[in-house]
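Worked Example 4.2. Read the sequence first, then its structure tokens.
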Amino acid sequence: MRSFIKYSKYCDFPIENLPYGVFSTANDGTPKIGVAIGEYILNLYEVAHLFNGPLLKDKHHVFKQTTLNSFMSLGLSEWKEARNRLQELLSEDVATLRDNTELRERAFILQSEAKMHLPAHIGDYTDFYSSIHHATNVGIMFRDKNNALLPNWRHLPVGYHGRASSVVISGTPIHRPYGQTLPVEGAAPVFGPCKLMDFELEMAFFVGGSNKLGEPISVQKAHEHIFGFVIMNDWSARDIQKWEYVPLGPFTAKNLGTSLSPWVVTTLALEPFIVDNYPQEPEPFPYLKHNDKFNFDISLEVDITPKDSNVSTTVCRSNFKHLYWTVKQQLAHHTVTGCNVNPGDLMASGTISGETSDSFGSLLELSWKGTKPIKLHDGTQRKFLQDGDTVTMKAFCEGEGYNVGFGVCTGQLLPAREISF
């Protein structure tokens, strides 16, 4: 496929990708829905009238909102029609945009001149724990090798409800949090800034469509509700987490901030990169069982850049395909009780770790609970994050002669605020 918009061969945003995002500019502070193509953004507000197919000709309003929620509320058929029309409009062989100089000047802006916002209003956020390698590593560290996975782990996608209000867009700095910790086993807890600050390499999907309270989404139809994916860094205060998580799980160790990449890569764009699902033993219950492939070959990387340094170090190379539970199973399990979901709800994978030590998706694993410091290219070492460190996560799929990229998810860890209690 070729576009009249020129871009480098392996850029993140070729015509095969076309992810959705929300942006504003210095000249127009009202957020608009856009599509990334090369180094540009196509402003859908300006071209909404060109979506003239049978399903979208009376729904132009969804492209004129300040979030993607309305568009996400439509169905898979509408999403397909929108994607096909966008590829047509951006094709080098179609004159509609290519030869309309006045419209092009209004409709295209450089990504470098845009400010990105959260793609949707996130009403609810759920974080799963779906990487078997990550769950095994954590189990070995905190229990023992023979009991690494808890008895329920291979039977259901473990998850918890997170805090939607502290989900932030890439580039938003995160302060080191305060909390209770237990530095010495058997002694009294202490209160103060977190000392073991970590990142978690995750991906997340946005829910499309909805279901009514009491009506589960079947695993066979779950893909019709999976709009698209983003990179996610679920910042984690490990020492706070260790003290607070029994018996109800993560709480203040995780609600301090969760960073998202700004571009939502649609499930439709990822179809060429579908691979076999991870082998599951024992066989899942019928409500979780699906025979179609719904795993994706998405390469993942994490870089750390120390404060006042221009030297970055890639500390992790992993892949989305390492997830044990598919996103279809996650959504089916989430709603099997009749829990209703809404357009724009966010559901995350949990830390994505591979089999090898350089593919572990957190510093907790990479440094093996602080016992194996990681050497950075600037000569320093890390067991956990230091103030001023910038964490950058990348994701991309490698096609034949092109990439489908997600951009980056980045954030800097700032010192704990000075607060009096």
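Now turn to a second chain, presented in exactly the same format:
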Amino acid sequence: MTVRTRIAPSPTGDPHVGTAYIALFNLAFARQHGGQFILRIEDTDRARSTPESEQMILDSLRWLGLEWDEGPDVGGEHGPYRQSERGDIYAEHAQRLIDDGHAFHCFCSSERLDELRKEQMANKQTPGYDGHCLHLPKAEVEGRLAAGEEHVVRMKIPTEGTCRVEDMLRDPIEIDWSQVDMQVLVKGDGMPTYHLANVVDDHLMGITHVIRGEEWINSAPKHLLLYKYFGWEAPTLCHMPLLRNPDKSKLSKRKNPTSIIYYQRMGYMAEALLNYLGRMGWSMPDEREKFSREEMFANFDIQRVSLGGPIFDQEKLSWLNGLWIREELSPEAFADRVKEWALNRDYLMPIVPLIQPRVETFSDVMPLAGFFLSGMPQIDEAAFEHKSLERDDVRRILQYALWQLEATRHWDKEHIFPGLSGLSKAMDFKIRDFLFPLFIAIAGTSSTVSVIESMAILGPDLSRARVRHALNLLGGPSKKEAKRWEKEFRGLQAALEG
């Protein structure tokens, strides 16, 4: 048997360090066994998936040195490798489940399902579908389908007994079928959900080992049941521990920068970041902290993975990155890396038109462009003092702007400015006053080039991180404020969209 592992990210946002973490362990396991590593794009969420996000995923994983043997950009005999291009395959397999009596059409409205969930929550029951459409007469189903009535396809779930989940790192896990919902397999728009597409693709692509995050443990019974329904042998499962913040909570961008591109723009070495991810729940036989990708692969044993919940600590990463810089780079290599990082022509050219009209001597360049070549600006609360804005105004502007920027999928000035401009109008601030806190957050000063064009050049990850840094400096919203602000922000967005 040839070992085949895979990573299957969704192109719906910034490439996550958690994706790289799981990709690294899949690649290490495949290389340890002389196998193959596949990259598949799970883009069935048509509303949120973007080509830009897919390209960022490919670029950032390659920057880290995580190369795949098959994928959307390199091809392979098991393609296509984008789920959006495999619609006919999913439709065929969904119909097979229906024909074999393992799935059914559900015509329940979202309103009915919402009421059902509220009632179950009130009665302290496990929320889940109640089987309302499970036994509809065949003639009725055919008539409603012929009439074009909206529907989804759900899988049938046993009502009694337990599912035994075998895992490479854990004792067998038993989950009662009563705790497993009748999962939607095909959405109302005809696109498959993750659960159907994941199982079908893993089988057809010959995946032998599914190494994924432990958040998928509760979905394992559905997946194993689908393999049984299709009459296929299930792959070996391995659920990796989740990355944690220093406070032990699940790694999230609200407490820790999570985008790979953020760490690239901040000037971390790819080798150091990959080294650090390799230490997340795993260790070398000799316990040394600094090691290369090749050293990890040569010594890899997945049984050395600890389930204790690895802590992703930026300070520790920075310390490790410093070791790599000092111990692995000659002065010549150091200069080359700095040039490659920020002094390369591709990055500098968009900056030049912004600063050149303001430059009288070349010594003016660094004061004007320095913030493009740095991490977090050196700012304090006094920098945000403004004649027309109170401190709480500044905090609200930064928080609302951050939410708006997090919702901005196409990152260029043509998309950034309309969103912020509309928000400033809805919040009843002059655009000049509204943008002031963003100038400070992004550039450290208001006496600089356009903040909108600056954000477009810096990219979404570093721009959002700087706004988040400024907000934390001033004090983010309390729980009470956050609830009120989120409600107000949703109202403003609704008004803008209406």
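Notes for the reader: The longest strand covers residues 209-213. The mean pLDDT is 94.
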